[in-house]
Amino acid sequence: MENFKSGFISICGRTNVGKSTLINLLVGEKIAAIADRVQTTRTQIRGIVNRENSQIIFIDTPGIHKPKTKLNENMIELSWDALDSSDIILFLIEATSKEIGRGDQRILEKIKEKNKKCILIINKIDLVNKDELARIIDLYKNEFDFTAIIPISAKKEKYKDIILEEIEKNLNEGPAYYDKEDYTDQTLRQLAEETIREKALIILRDEVPHGIFVEVEKMKLKKTLNNEPIYHIEATIYCLRNSHKGIIIGKNGETLKKIGMMARKDMEKNFGVKVNLKTWVKVKEDWMNNEKFFNGANQ
Fold first, then answer.
1. Other CB atoms within 10 Å distance of the CB of residue 65
2. What is the topology classification, in CATH, of domain 5-173?
3. pLDDT band at residue 60, thresholds of 50, 70 and 90?
């Protein structure tokens, strides 16, 4: 048997390039919120991949963007911290980029500072032709000596093993940091919050700005009348103003019901037990600039 390897792999990139989709693909479980919106991931989310001779711990980080609030500043700081604590960096870019934009250039400069192994992942290759892909590869090759360059479509399963094999090849010997059954370090409460927020972002689209925040206040495992396990979950969706509250609730509460129904179905699938979910909406003005609020709730 080969010597066991392990390591921490940070996934970095601009907002909305597909980092959460990629980590869910690599881990094989849904641990990060996916919505076609910027700044979907707000915290460092760890996903664990257990292989025969290795344990790979992925750190999905908030996308790099121009900070406008305390929350945004906190998100950027988390992303840079992840680079410090990682053994290998996965730098995710889009194949559709015509040049190295300001955001990607900023990340590249940070990668150069860290002087660590870095694998360039070029996502969304199904949207470009071979010449355009070759051009973007050359652009980045001239900027940094990447350990490997892997063009992919993060929604396709076939790229999973290619990336994992390349990472394992570049890991050092080390212990297993988590049990073999673990696939994330998030608690079920945090997974529930992620799920509700994801569904809200998907359903609300552009109707409510990104100022929503979810907190699970109660989560208890009980038994049904048929003696089956069931989670009773009570959660609050916070928004920035009263007008947003009305949109989230919707006419006759229909929008909130839809968010709750979609979130409940996802949770039942992920948790493997029935879920009874109750949600409320509250206004918390300017929570995005209140560090105690979003840090205290681990969101």
1. 16
2. Rossmann fold (3.40.50)
3. confident
